[in-house]
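fwd from M.: "can u put these together and see what the complex looks like"

so here's what she sent:
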Amino acid sequence: MKCAVCRGPAVIDLRRHNANFCADHFLKFCRDQVVRAIDEHDMIEPGERVLVAVSGGKDSLALWDLLLDLGYDAEGMTIGLGIGDYSTASTATAVAFAERRNLTLGRIDLRGDYDYDIPTAAAVTRRVPCSSCGLSKRHLIDRAALDGDYDVVATGHNLDDEAAVLFGNVLHWHTEYLGRQRPVLAERIGPETDTGSGGRSGRAEAGTRVFPRKVKPLVRLTERETAAYCVLRGIDYVVEECPMAEGNRHLRYKEALNAVEAASPGAKQAFYFGFLARAADRFAPEPDGGDGEVRACARCGSPTTGEVCAFCRLIDQVTGHDPVPVELVRPRRRGSRRRRARTKRPSGQDATGAQNSTGSATKAGS
Amino acid sequence: MKCAVCRGPAVIDLRRHNANFCADHFLKFCRDQVVRAIDEHDMIEPGERVLVAVSGGKDSLALWDLLLDLGYDAEGMTIGLGIGDYSTASTATAVAFAERRNLTLGRIDLRGDYDYDIPTAAAVTRRVPCSSCGLSKRHLIDRAALDGDYDVVATGHNLDDEAAVLFGNVLHWHTEYLGRQRPVLAERIGPETDTGSGGRSGRAEAGTRVFPRKVKPLVRLTERETAAYCVLRGIDYVVEECPMAEGNRHLRYKEALNAVEAASPGAKQAFYFGFLARAADRFAPEPDGGDGEVRACARCGSPTTGEVCAFCRLIDQVTGHDPVPVELVRPRRRGSRRRRARTKRPSGQDATGAQNSTGSATKAGS
């Protein structure tokens, strides 16, 4: 197996590109793909300040490394989600990466800073953990970018992620999500609130940025490629998948697409980029009014279509509960809805009760 | 397991409907689904003459049986494709079904009537067999419907078929196919050809029907359900799948969707009907001109955007060749493109040559 560029010994074969690469040319390939993604989708301008959402996994660390390598002014932000050993290891890995290179890494700890964690939020809301997790991460990263005056937020979504999300949106024909599934989400300026007319305007003012631009520079790389990138670059990352995501739809969609990709290399890439080229515009929201009335959250000023944004509503619901250990929150599976953890502050026996009601709670282990 | 309707012993469980049925109520369920499909999509008006495309498999025989049972004036049409024992058995099964009930079944034999068969066409065109097969069947059924003055052609496409085709079209974002993927294709009246202006108009005249309405009354039933319907109705059908379809994309897409369906019963139905409800219109061709200039085929008068329609071009290419046995035409697989059968009239050694060049030709089975 020889490198397609230099004919030296190859270390990786990329079937969808029908090419093998040596370590150096594979790393160059990764950089080239990121440069191309950034250029084609106008993700980041030279000189802009980038906030990288860092989990400690292969994608976010590869992304941070790549952006620095390409000369961007990229700082990190990590959120302690409280998902047992998995979160402990993730945060430690992100911190170690930053310290070794003397990088700036902002940190939030959900339990310490907001008095909840993801297992508890999942148990209290009785929704899949990924729901409160995604909501929390999005809100806090966006807020950190605005407060820290970053020009853009970069996340580590790779081609497999985006194709799987697209597949899920297409399976359900979630047209509103399809309309927004792009490698770049534009920044938003605060609604033109008329503070003189007696309306409540929240903290956002007209002309203020209420939502940062968000970009996904890894959309041209697969997760196998970001993992290989980390290995070849000597980046230590958390290999384990989140124990709470086990069996979730997103992973099932990945598996279904992987089966198609195995038989037709390049299928996933054609699916995602074909969507962007030929279909995404067909689902684009109406220029006016398609989003409903966006106003500022009465509590935090974030853009929302309700009175209070989803994050502030989550906070209202989930803070102040006794922590539920991750082991007791079973990933949602078919038929298990009624067997999930139940916690109510008054009982004081939440965790034990949850264990009983879940019966065969999954092992969270990392 | 009890019938959801009468609480008697159930013979089948339908997970996506979260219901079990006894034989009688399952048969009623099937009829109800067909009635609903016909009604919701305005497929067939009472009193119209229906031509059923009959292969001898479970879907087409169930369809014919259901339409007759519902009181429609439905006659059949079957095409001998020349795919070895599979085609022999299929035709015999279709004929036996018709004879036992004294039904009218039109017959075409590709080799006898048009001097080619599907294995030979696949070998000569060097394309997947399903390509010339689908083209031949569509053209000949449509033509038979027009010549026989049938109001509508009914085909046995079931929910699994339609969902798999949709998945394939979505994976590649074939927007033009997505725009046409409906349970009903409207009839077409001949182009307004101006025969006085020196143009060649073919055999079609303005105001003549050049394409019959085509409907898929089984779109609300899965293939498991049409098979169960046949078993419970005592309908003898060809169980084997076409040996030439083995490993084709359509089957792979079915498998991928089956994996999703197994984890989320109802996913396939939501995918297909969600498409019709919320996405199909977004891909609809422009009312004018989107289809290119449709004219009458110079040879046969069928609607085409070229001079000669695809079927007449196929005929030109594939008739008069020595028959290639089905065993020698290997289903197209990754990497096998260059190893497929080669036939040229002059050699006279086509079949042998093909066997050599294919190397490990698949066993055609049954």
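replying to her w this: The first helix of chain B runs from residue 23 to 40.
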